[in-house]
Amino acid sequence: MKRIVPVAVILIIVGAMVAIQQGILPRKYLSTKTAFAAYEPASIATIMQNKVAWHQKMVSISGKIFGYKEKVSRAGNPYTVFFLRESQYLVTVHYRGHLRLANNQEVTVEGEYLKVKHLGNDTFYDEVEAANVTVNR
CB under 8 Å to 134, separation ≥6 — which residues? Predict the structure, then answer.
């Protein structure tokens, strides 16, 4: 019985990885940062005024969408990029997948704030890698 439990756990993990690879299960379930994260509510202004302290923190921010774009990467993965504005401050939001939203909608975004993000030869600043996006009604 003691041997069966570790083998079962390994089979579950391998099965989940295969499901994620084949697109059956969303990739976000692979991340331990987003799966059990406690998002700290913050204003965009607070984050922008102290970027170093908020870097790599799990945040919950709200604001109005503008510059909304749904795209597909060269590898064929859908993603969404938009700016979230609060007064004169703004952050870029990146979400894996398409959200079907529009400019001027008020939303709450939960995810990891990154002061700087390097991706290949590109460098991005003041970005939230979103795990959840909800429309404020």
Answer: 107, 108
Distances (CA, A) of 20 to 23, 25, 95: 5, 5, 17
Nearest to 58 by CA among 33, 30, 36, 39: 39
Cα–Cα distance between 51 and 42 in angstroms, integer? 12
Going from N- to C-terminal start, the domains of the chain cover 1-29, 32-135
- Would you state the pLDDT for residue 120? 87
pLDDT digits (tens, 9 = 90+) for 95-120: 999 999 999 999 999 999 999 999 88
CB atoms within 10 A of CB 83: 17
Nearest to 46 by CA among 60, 33, 36, 32: 60
> What span, in angstroms and rounded, lies between the C-alpha atoms of 108 and 105?
10
CATH of domain 32-135: 2.40.50.140
Distance CA 58, CA 55 (A): 9
Q: What is the pLDDT of residues 66-79, one digit of tens each?
A: 999 999 999 999 99
Q: What is this structure's pTM? A: 0.73
